[in-house]
Structures are given as structure tokens and as C-alpha cells.
Design goal:
The protein is of the alpha/beta class and 287 residues long. It folds into two domains: 87 residues, Winged helix-like DNA-binding domain superfamily/Winged helix DNA-binding domain (Arc Repressor Mutant, subunit A, Orthogonal Bundle); 161 residues, Rossmann fold. It is built from 14 helices and five strands. Strands 2-1-3-4-5 form a five-stranded parallel beta sheet, sandwiched between helices. β3, α12 and β4 form a beta-alpha-beta unit. α3 packs across α5, α8 packs across α13 and α10 packs parallel to α13. The radius of gyration is 20 Å and the shape is globular. The protein starts with a helix and ends with a helix.
Length: 287
């Protein structure tokens, strides 16, 4: 497993390896990668002929795409996906117990937590292709677009945090609440030039997944922040930003996700130039 992960550019999942290798793939190989990510990980557990049909390419093209990410056989890819599924469905309690009760004994909880969080942020930033990040920033900085954010039980905290900061930088930013009526009202207002930024992590929430799908039906551009194993909402996402959820506690961490959201805000500031700084200054004066 370690050897294959190294071949996958050190990625935590096949999905991350595919995204990081996108720029070196041929157009046909990219079609395979997109087909796999769109129905991840189910599409990769099908026979190679079926995946090739999904992507409208030949089986040899599938093999060449896998070679680009350091996987030498289709059965090995399926083994990796099965291992990922096991991790994807593991409960936070099971993960915490697997770490061992004495995992933080040597350096104490503070030192152990620092290692986990720093490692999670570092690996998460490494997994985001710069081209994908730049496209997301340009989308959110476009003044002609209305921006919406949404999240689940915990991830809505990051979604609203991003929304609050973007509202200070530009007009036309709204956060969608967690209730069904909030989502229904948002769907009424969605337009084809709108952008939905959704957050959905392991123990994926069906309400978020279905909301992203319905937004896509209304031709909304969609950005999904998720974990390395990809929320089912990935099939409806135009852009994917994945991050580690490893934590020193029995709960998945949103620290790397928050760091990436902060970085998106920094990117929007750089993209917009001096104008948002004037908005922030005016807001401070009125407060």
C-alpha cells in the first residue's frame, strides 16, 4: 500500500491523484478520470470495459490513465478503492480507537494535535491543483455572479464563515440555512450565472447532496469542498477542493477545510484589487 501511495504522488486517495495528474493527461485520459470522479468510487469497481464505456474510450486508454498516476494494473486500482471505502465508512470512534490510547503520550496532547493539524493542512494544500484553485477564485471574484454557500450539521460553520468574509469583499453573497425551507427558497432564486459553494464531509448529508444536484439542474456553477474520499455530491460539482479530516479527537477535523476557505478569501482579495479593502474600511467605520 505504501509503495502504491508513493506512486500516486503521495496522494491519500485515487481521486486526489487523478486531480493532481490532470495536467499531464491526454484528452481521452481526462475523460476516464472525469468519469471515475463523477461516480466515485463505484465506477472504478466496475469491469474495465464498463468504465471505458462510461468515458467513451477504449480499455487501453483506461490503463494508460492509471499509469499516469502510478497504478500498474486495474485490479490494483480496485484494491485501493476498496481500502478507501473501508476508511470512508469508518466511524470517528473507530478511528480514534485505532490511533491507540497512548498515541499522544510521548509529546502530550498539544504536541500530538500540532502534528496532526500541521500534517493535515500540508497534505490538503498539496492535493489542490493550482489551476483548479485559480478557477475557483476567479469564479468567486466575478462581480456578475451571485455566490451562495451551504453546508451540513458541522460544515455549515465553514460555509457561513466563508460567506461572511466574501460579503465584506463583494456584493451578492448569501448563505443558505440548514432547513429545507431555506434550501427551497434558494432554489427559487437560483440563476444560470450563480455559484454554489457546498461543504460536505464524511457521514455525508443527503440534504446537501440533493441540494447540490438540484442546483446543478438549474445550471448553477458548483464548487464542492469535501474530504479525500469525495462526497456523493462530487458527481454534480464543477470544481472539487478536498482536504484531510484527520483529528486528534473522535471527531473529523475541519481545520484544513477552514485553512483552504481562508486561502480562497485571500485569493479573492488579490483578484479584486483595492476595491474590497475600501468595502472593509467602510464597514469598520459604520460598525
Amino acid at each position: 500500500m505504501v509503495e502504491e501511495r508513493t506512486g500516486m504522488q503521495g496522494s491519500r486517495t485515487l481521486a486526489e491523484a487523478l486531480k493532481k495528474s490532470f495536467d499531464v493527461m491526454s484528452p481521452s485520459e481526462k475523460k476516464v478520470a472525469r468519469a471515475l470522479i463523477a461516480e466515485y468510487p463505484v465506477a472504478g469497481l466496475e469491469p474495465v470495459v464498463k468504465l471505458a464505456e462510461r468515458a467513451s474510450v477504449s480499455a487501453p486508454t483506461v490503463f494508460r490513465m492509471l499509469a499516469k498516476v502510478g497504478i500498474q494494473s486495474y485490479p490494483r486500482m480496485q484494491e485501493i478503492l476498496r481500502e478507501e471505502i473501508a476508511l470512508r465508512t469508518t466511524s470517528p470512534i473507530d478511528q480514534y480507537e485505532a490511533m491507540g490510547e497512548g498515541s499522544g503520550a510521548e509529546h502530550g496532547v498539544l504536541g500530538s494535535a500540532k502534528d496532526v493539524f500541521v500534517g493535515g493542512i500540508t497534505s490538503s494544500f498539496a492535493a489542490v491543483p493550482s489551476s483548479e484553485f485559480d478557477q475557483v477564485v476567479r469564479l468567486l471574484a466575478d462581480p456578475k455572479r451571485c455566490i451562495w454557500t451551504v453546508g451540513g450539521r458541522y460544515s455549515s460553520l465553514v460555509a457561513e464563515y466563508l460567506s461572511i468574509h466574501l460579503r465584506l469583499l463583494r456584493p451578492g453573497v448569501r448563505h443558505v440555512g440548514r432547513s429545507e425551507s431555506d434550501k427551497s427558497l434558494a432554489l427559487l432564486d437560483f440563476g444560470p450565472r450563480d455559484v454554489l459553494v457546498a461543504f460536505d464531509y464524511r457521514r455525508y448529508q443527503e440534504t446537501t447532496v440533493s441540494f447540490v444536484a438540484r442546483a446543478k439542474e438549474r445550471r448553477v456553477s458548483t464548487v464542492l469542498f469535501t474530504d479525500p474520499w469525495l462526497s456523493p455530491a462530487a458527481k454534480c460539482a464543477d470544481y472539487l477542493v478536498s482536504s484531510s479530516v484527520e483529528a486528534p479527537s473522535p471527531f473529523d477535523s475541519l481545520v484544513p477545510a477552514l485553512a483552504l476557505a481562508e486561502t480562497v478569501v485571500a485569493g479573492v482579495v488579490a483578484q479584486l484589487g483595492p476595491e474590497p479593502l475600501g468595502r472593509v474600511q467602510a464597514f469598520d467605520e459604520w460598525e
